[in-house]
Structures are given as C-alpha cells and as structure tokens.
Design brief:
It contains twelve helices and 21 strands. Bound molecules: ligand LLP.
C-alpha cells in the first residue's frame, strides 16, 4: 500500500489506522474524507525531528494549510510544534478560531486585500509575507494608521524552474508570485522597505512549486537565496533573521511516484545551507520550510459508493461514484494520478479497467481513467488514496452537491472533524 496507515485486513477490506473502511462508510455515509491522525502526527514529527538533527533546532516547519484547512488540523500541527501558513482571510480566521497564536502565523498571498491585511495586522500576525511593492506600501500604510511596527518577510522568485505540472510551478521568472531577483525588483523593494518606519523585514521567503520529486531544485534554491542574503548585507547593510525555503515535497499518488523521504531533502538542503553560509562567512539564519501536501496528502483517502456501471464495448468502462470533481477536482484540473481500489474487495485481484466518473453534469468530471480496480458491482465502496491534500480544500458545491464530511481516524477509533453539509447549508446565503 502506498501509505503506511493503510492495509488490507483479515476480512479483505481496506483498513486505515486500524479502522475498517467498509464500516466507516456504513457509519458515516459516503462520500467521506478519511484522514489518519496517526500518519499526520508522524509526518509532523519527522519534520520537527529533522530540524533538531540538521539545524540543532534553529529552524521549524510551517504547515501550509492550503493543503487542508479546518480547525482540527491547526490544533494537531500546533500540538506537534509547527507554525502555520495561511493564504486568505478565511484560513487566517480559521487558524485564529482554532487557537493558533497569531505570532506563529505566516500570511502568504499574491494579492491580499486591504481588508485581509488589516485583519492580519489588527490580530498581530507574526509574519506577513509581502509579495510585491504595492503590498509593501499597503502594509506600511495600515501599520502606520494603527501605530504599530509589523514584522514582514519578502517573497522572492529565485528563478528556479522545478519539474512539476506547469500550474503548480512558482519559482521561475514568469510567475504571478513574488519579487524578481534578476531584474533588481527584490533589491528595490528592500531599499524602499528600509526607509519605512512601520515595518521591518525579518527574512526572505521562496517557494518553487509543488509535488517536486527531486532534491536538486531545493538545494539550488537555498544556494541562490543565501547568495542574495549576502548581496543584501553588502549593498544595504540588512542582515535577515530567517530564510523560509517554502514547501513542495512530493508524495506517492501511485506506486510509480518516487517520492524522496523528507529526511533526505532536509539533509541535502541543510548541507547546502551550512556550506554556503560558511563560504559567504555568514551566520546561519533561522530556517523555515513550509510543507502542505507531504504533511496530510498520504494520510487521507476518500470513500465513495459505486453507482451506475456503463460498459461501452471497445471504448471504456465507466464506473460512476457518488462524488466527483466537487469533492476532488484534481483530475479535471491537472490529470493527476491516483490509486483507486474497491475497499470491500481489497483482497481480490485488480483485473478490471475502469474510468471512475463523478456525478456532475460534465464529461470531464472524472477521478481517473483506465485504472485497474477489482471487478465492481453497484453498492461497492471505492477508495481513492492520497486525497488528504488539496481535495477537501479545493472542493466546491458545483451542481449544488454537498461537501462531504471529514473524519479523523487514530488507532482504531474515528471522529468527525468537519460535518457534512446539508441542503440547508446550501441555501443559507440565498435571498
Ligand atoms: N508555500 C507556498 C507559498 C505555496 O504556494 C505552497 C503551495 C506551499 C507552501 C505548500 O506546497 P506543498 O508542500 O503542499 O507542495 N492545488 C495544487 C497544489 C497547489 C500548491 C500551491 N502552493 C494541487 O492540487 O496539486
């Protein structure tokens, strides 16, 4: 099984963290998001421990909550000692509601509104990651109106082209995120920031993309960023406190994905950080990384009930489920790979080639095409693996479908962390 929280039990059913998924589907209904709390906590610990080992604790992982945001996940990652990254007023609000101290929140985004910036400043968010010059001026203005000095960092485009899907690549020059190094835009922003009296730039941030399955782009990014630290020190006399190297570590969606164990990224990047700082005769900054997908992705699965099966001879076999692009738009958007299996027949051979179709009025509403599963019948439970990241968080109400419930499982127990929506929820804001 691609995730260590999964196994096939004695009944031939898929089990997650000691819970039989067929029983979960019976108890909570489908579609259902199921997250292994055990694996999430283990992932957090692996990152935290890596910082102790590689940076003598002078660094910390930040959970990028765009991957999966709800109150309970903020409580979990905080209890494991991680900071939290948010990218909207909504994520910020949820994190604050969950009790995350504002000083441990990092606020990202390429076009934060005045309202969002004000909300962040009024609540004392610890690190506003400024994306562009216009935002720098907005932060200065709001901070001066509130008579406070805010700590910010700047998002830099390091010019690294990571090999991943073009929609989730962000480090190269042609990106809507961040300030450019090559054109001098980033240096200019720092020059202007130095003159501002209501903000102080504590560090720099970068993020080169997502689902990256190699170490080298991360190593190069760290080197580029530290050379820029040196340049800024020499040209402007600014010495930063921290460097945030972003997230993007790939996970297993199928057996074919060769995800690098986190410890290996951490070791490779830390070696480059130490070596570069030594060469540049620079003190090591405090290091942050910002993983999202790799904290929650493999820990989540989605359970569906199989409905209509349409076998079109010589063409394909459509196996329709009671979910679709409204709970998981990633195949429709990126043609993402997934592993699918019948949870109630997990012990049987996967010798049936299926195209898993959703229930939305849209031909492209598919979860996977031509994928091998066990021979299906109406009423079977289909499990899609590695759906813990960017599934619930990207869900919609397309066709007025209801966003499913999300449960956490741990050592054979289960509990609801997000209730499933109801029809009343759908019309709540309708006039
Ligand atoms: N930090 C920043 C500034 C980011 O933009 C992102 C992801 C992360 C951290 C976390 O990256 P991760 O460790 O999760 O790869 N919806 C797409 C992924 C978009 C990623 C956006 N930014 C998907 O479903 O694949």
């Amino acid at each position: 099984m691609i995730a260590k929280c999964l196994r096939v039990n004695e009944a031939g059913h898929l089990e997650i963290s000691g819970c039989d998924t067929v029983k979960l589907a019976e108890q909570y209904g489908t579609p259902l998001y199921v997250m292994s709390e055990d694996l999430i906590r283990e992932n957090c610990r692996r990152y935290v421990t890596s910082f102790e080992k590689n940076y003598s604790g002078k660094g910390k992982p930040i959970y990028a909550s765009k991957a999966f945001s709800c109150k309970e996940i903020y409580r979990i990652v905080r209890s494991e000692g991680m900071d939290v990254e948010v990218v909207s007023g909504g994520e910020l609000y949820t994190a604050l509601q969950a009790g995350v101290p504002a000083s441990h929140i990092h606020f990202q985004g390429n076009n934060k509104s005045l309202g969002e910036l004000t909300f962040a400043i009024e609540n004392g968010v610890g690190d506003i990651v400024v994306d562009n010059l216009s935002e720098l001026h907005k932060v200065e203005k709001i901070a001066s109106e509130h008579n406070v000095v805010v700590e910010v960092s700047l998002r830099i485009k390091p010019g690294i082209d990571a090999h991943t899907h073009e929609f989730i690549r962000t480090g190269q020059i042609d990106s809507k995120f961040g300030l450019d190094l090559e054109s001098g835009e980033a240096m200019e922003a720092l020059r202007q920031a130095k003159e501002m009296s209501h903000l102080v730039v504590k560090g720099l941030h970068c993020h080169i993309g997502s689902q990256i399955l190699e170490k080298t782009p991360f190593v190069h990014t760290a080197e580029v960023m530290l050379h820029f630290f040196d340049q800024v020190r020499k040209e402007l006399g600014i010495v930063f406190t921290f460097l945030n190297l972003g997230g993007g570590f790939g996970i297993h969606y199928t057996e074919q994905d060769h995800a690098v164990p986190y410890e290996e990224y951490m070791e490779a990047v830390s070696a480059a950080v130490h070596k570069t700082c030594e060469e540049l005769q620079m003190d090591l900054p405090y290091i942050y990384i910002e993983p999202g997908r790799s904290v929650v992705g493999e820990a989540g699965i989605t359970l569906y009930t199989v409905g209509t099966i349409k076998e079109i001879p010589g063409i394909r076999n459509y196996v329709a489920i009671d979910g679709g692009m409204f709970d998981n738009p990633r195949y429709a958007l990126y043609h993402s790979d997934y592993t699918c299996l019948l949870a109630n027949r997990a012990g049987e051979p996967a010798d049936y080639v299926a195209t898993i179709a959703g229930k939305c009025c849209e031909s492209g509403d598919l979860i996977q095409e031509h994928t091998a599963i066990q021979h299906p019948q109406e009423g079977d439970i289909l499990a899609v693996l590695s759906t813990g990241a960017y599934n619930y968080s990207m869900a919609s109400n397309y066709n007025r479908n209801l966003k499913p419930a999300c449960i956490m499982v741990s050592q054979g127990t289960s509990r609801i962390v997000i209730k499933g929506e109801t029809y009343e929820d759908l019309v709540r804001n309708d006039i």
